[in-house]
Structure formats: C-alpha cells, structure tokens
Write a structure and sequence with these properties.
alpha/beta, D-Maltodextrin-Binding Protein, domain 2, 2 domains, four-stranded mixed sheet, 48% helix, 13% strand, ABC transporter substrate-binding protein
Length: 448
Amino acid sequence: MPGTRRRRFRHAGAGTAAVLALCLTVACGGGGDSGNGDAVTELPDLTGKTVQVAAVWTGSEQKNFKKALQEFEERTGAEVEFVPTGDNVSSFLSSRIEDGSPPDVAMLPQVGVLQQFAEKGWLKPVDDATYRQMLMNLETGWHDLGAHEGTTYGVYFKAANKSLVWYNTAAFEKAGASEPKTWKDFLDTAQRLADSGVDPVSVGGADGWTLTDWFENIYLSQAGPDMYDRLAAHEIPWTDPSVEKALTTLGDLFGEEQLLAGGNDGARATAFPESVTKAFSDLEDPEAAMVYEGDFVGVNITSDTDAELGTDAKLFPFPAVGGGQPPVVTGGDAAVALKHSPGAHAMMTFLASEDAARIMAEQGGFLSPNKSLDTAAYPSDLQREIATALLDAGSTFRFDMSDQAPAAFGGTKGEGEWKALQDFLDNPDDVAGAMLALEDSAAKAFDD
C-alpha cells in the first residue's frame, strides 16, 4: 500500500488557510446551524463563484451527493456544478486537464490513479484547513492513501467495507447453518447448504473485479498485512509462494462445483448485480444462499429484491483464513483538488468534515471513513454494524489491492488481474498458470 510507512506529510502553507478563513465553529466562535444543533465547519463567502465537482456516481448515489453539495452552496453562496465522469474516470479527467478545463475537485476511486495524477503534477496539495480536518476525522491509514512522496493530496470521503458475506436467513435456517468464523467453517457451511438443496455461494465472475476481492481477502488474512503491502506494490512477484497458497485456498471453493451457484460456468457468466439477486429474489427458494461483496450489496438488495435487510438478509465478516486475523479490505473515493482556488480548497475542507459525512450517512447507502461521525447517523442497525466494523479496524485495514495497481493490471475489463482470475475460475486446478499470467501482466503494467 503506497505510503504506509510515512507518518509526516507536507501540505500547502498557512497563508492559504488565512485567505480562506476556514476554521471550526466550535474553535472560532462562528455561527451556523447544521440542522441538528451540532457544531459545523465554517466556510468562506464564495458568492458569485462556481465550483465544479466531478464524480462517477449516478442514480441515487448522485442524488444523495447533490444534497451534500447543496449544503455547501447554502453555506458559501457558491454555485456547485456536478460533472459526471462516466465509468472511465481517469480518461475523462486526463482529457479535461490536458484541454485546460479541469473541474475544481474530482472524486478518484483508485489509489493508482491518484498516484499517477500526482506524479504528473496535476493535483494540488491540501491546504492547512483541510489538513486539520483530516487530522481530526481520518485515521492515519487514510492519510497514507491520499499521499504521494510525502505530500497529501487526497481526502477520503467515501469508503467501502469489502469484507462481508451476505446470506439468505431462510436458507440458513432450513439447513441448520450458522455464521462461520473461519475459512474451514465457511467451506463446511457451504457443504451443509448444498446438502440441504440450495447452491451455497453466488459468485459474480462475469465482473472480474469481484474475483480480485475474493483473492485479496484470503491473501490479507493468510499472508498478513506486510506481505499484502509488498504484493500490492509489486515488491514481490505474483509467483511468490504466498500467492500460490492463497490461490490454492481460493481453489478450495472454486474447485468444488457443487458449492457455486450454477457451477463454474454459471459463476463465470454471472454479473455482480445478478449474483446478489440470486440469493435474495426468491427468499423461500433462492438460487443461492450466500453472496460475498462489500457494503454496497445492501443497495442492490433493497433496490432489486423484496428482501428486508437485517431480517431476510444478514451478513457476517469474511472468515479468518489459515489462523490469520479476519481481513478488513476497503475501497473508497478520494476527493482531490485540480485547481488552486478558494472554491476548490473550501470544497476539500467541507468534504473532510464531519458535517458532509453526516449528510451522506443519514441518507443511507453510504459508508464514511470519518471517525468523528457518530454511527447513530446511519439509518439502520445493519449499516451501523458495517460502519463499526470498518472503524474498529483503525489503521490495520488494507485498501483494495487491485485499485492500488496501474489500471492496465488492476482495473481493466478483459485484461490483467481481472482476466487472469476469470481464467482461474474457469480452471481452478491451474494455480501455476494463474500465477504466471498474473505476474506477466503485473510486470508489464508496473514497468510502464
């Protein structure tokens, strides 16, 4: 994980903070009302200014984010324009930057892209006011992820807990199954479910990113955080014995066709949204009993099925593997400033604050890395449980490995890690072939 050994960061000078006059209301005695009586972050008067914020978000996610942006407008007098990036955030922003028309702030969903943009000099360091908010509200690990060569550029606004297994409670009750704590227990539970007449595990193998998440959770728990960091940085090859061990462990599931919904062919043909509905569309006679993926599965359940979260659909942490600790793999979106302007810096400070996190959390379907946010802000017990698990990890979590890699290896459909692991799903006995394919692709991507 980039920067995990760094604990000191450079940021913009104190003069910027003075110009923006940004401070905490509780410290500066300013006014303002967040609507719930809590102290709010004071922001400068930006009347007549336009602030553009670019993000990939669509649908309800975009709608909810616009409510937070509306709060920024009301506090500053600025007009905020949401700029949709489309799925290829990197290409969209690169084009805008090279054309001389970048948005003020952008949300980057991949650490690798943040590193690449910082290397090119496209990002502006956070100023003092934003950095103070980060010190109060974000664990050091999130600072590390937003830094490049000791300078802090990114504010992690949205997080994902990608170490969750969701299950159909009726299927578990019918099989007499309980929530497993270890990988061995998980496989035994899957077999019990298969014996009861339901396919145990739904895998969205048509989307290669889901397979990277399976691997990462197993590897983090089995090999440990230090080895995870080394593999993420390609300091060790994908032919390392630790990779062989993790793939062999994953093959204990992928190599047992009766444990996969639709077998290997069915898993390979199933897209992520369908992998969720297989477990929860028909509650009494589901196509699968469990589906692994992050907290965002809850949004798919509520929007695409009639299952009730916390009743029909429950979850348990990804099980510990090989005597290791239960893994906590995260994803997330970092806000970065692409312009050195009062509006850009004010937006960055707002997004680093508890205030913006609360607005998003209260609407549901959102997980914040902000440790100052009271989990009571989340609208359900299940969401509070997910948030608590992430916050309890402190700085021991690890960020999605594929999102840290160059996009050619970790984030391109039909190529790199996605393709190699899809091939492994097709043929889980070929551990050696998967390792060679992964290393060949990684070597090329990291050398570019």
